[in-house]
Design brief:
Layout lengths: L22 H4 L8 H24 L3 E8 L5 H9 L7 E4 L6 H4 L5 H4 L7 E6 L8 H4 L5 H20 L3 E8 L2 H13 L9 H8 L1 H15 L6 E5 L3 H14 L19 E4 L13
Parallel strand pairs: 1-3, 1-4, 2-3, 4-5
Antiparallel strand pairs: 5-6
Helix pairs in contact: 2-11
């Protein structure tokens, strides 16, 4: 039988590399991290991710990591940072398009669960079943009944994944309305990023307050002990990426972990939502 994942923990520490050097060498005047420091620190963490993947493969583990957040929050680039040096045969990113006519008639979770990792595999979801908690509700892509039904089922679905031995992590990249405006403007002015823009981006910008309301509802109802939300301040994408990787590494006891490096996360960047009420059945079965 699979060894079940232990409860995720959050350890804040000031012993992180960015607080051991002169601030001028680490931070820009804006407070964002300098590129040189970022590259140096992420390379160290990449070595750990490679060790983690070897452990996943050697021990037939299944690692599922989902990323949520408002448009322009940096989900895709964060996933790319996680996967930079991983073996692509055993690690993949999933970004599902809108459901086709056949999928619309399926159980809502069905097309997502087809993508969960096989033994020895790491899978990253660039958006997930939480579309129904946010964007679908904002723009009327689902009914209120469907939205409510999702909330009646999602904690049970996630508990079954964890109970079956899947290592399951949920990250939410949070940005301010002002940051979202700036990033959309940057995409408008950069021909290499123009493909990222759609009408929905502009509608999402206008709907920012509704997204905030639904985000907080999601944290409250689905940030459970068995599947907590790790919320990251992603106004500085680089700091968010570093701390996302740190959090993941901190909560998996893989072989060869550098415990002098993997010591915790930055309190300024990371919050954990894990007090949602859910009385499941999996843990009570004989």
């Amino acid at each position: 039988m699979e060894t079940k994942m232990t409860r995720q923990e959050l350890i804040y520490t000031k012993k992180l590399a960015e607080y051991q050097e002169k601030p001028s060498k680490v931070f820009k005047k804006s407070g964002n991290i300098e590129e040189d420091f970022y590259e140096k620190e992420t390379l160290k963490l990449q070595y750990e991710l490679v060790k983690l993947q070897k452990w996943v493969i050697d021990n037939n583990k299944r690692l599922l990591v989902i990323f949520e957040g408002m448009d322009t929050a940096g989900k895709s680039s964060t996933i790319k940072e996680f996967g930079n040096y991983l073996n692509p045969r055993e690690a993949r990113s999933v970004a599902l398009p809108k459901p086709n006519s056949k999928e619309v008639g399926q159980w809502y979770f069905q097309r997502h669960l087809k993508q969960i990792p096989n033994a020895g595999e790491i899978v990253f979801f660039d958006r997930s079943w939480y579309n129904r908690a946010g964007i679908e509700q904002v723009f009327g892509f689902c009914t209120q009944e469907q939205h409510d039904h999702f909330y009646r089922q999602v904690n049970g679905v996630e508990e079954m994944l964890v109970d079956d031995g899947v290592l399951f992590f949920k990250f939410y990249l949070n940005i301010t309305h002002e940051t979202q405006k700036e990033r959309i403007k940057d995409r408008e002015n950069d021909p290499l990023k123009s493909w990222k823009l759609s009408d929905l981006d502009y509608r999402s910008l206008d709907a920012y307050p509704k997204y905030e309301e639904l985000r907080d509802k999601m944290f409250t109802l689905t940030g459970t002990a068995h599947a907590p939300w790790c919320e990251l301040d992603a106004n500085d994408k680089k700091r968010a990426r570093i701390n996302a990787i740190r959090y993941l590494l901190l909560n998996i006891d893989y072989e060869g972990k550098n415990r002098d490096l993997v010591i915790g996360v930055d309190q300024k960047i990371v919050k954990l939502h894990h007090k949602g009420k859910y009385n499941g059945e999996c843990n009570h079965m004989a």
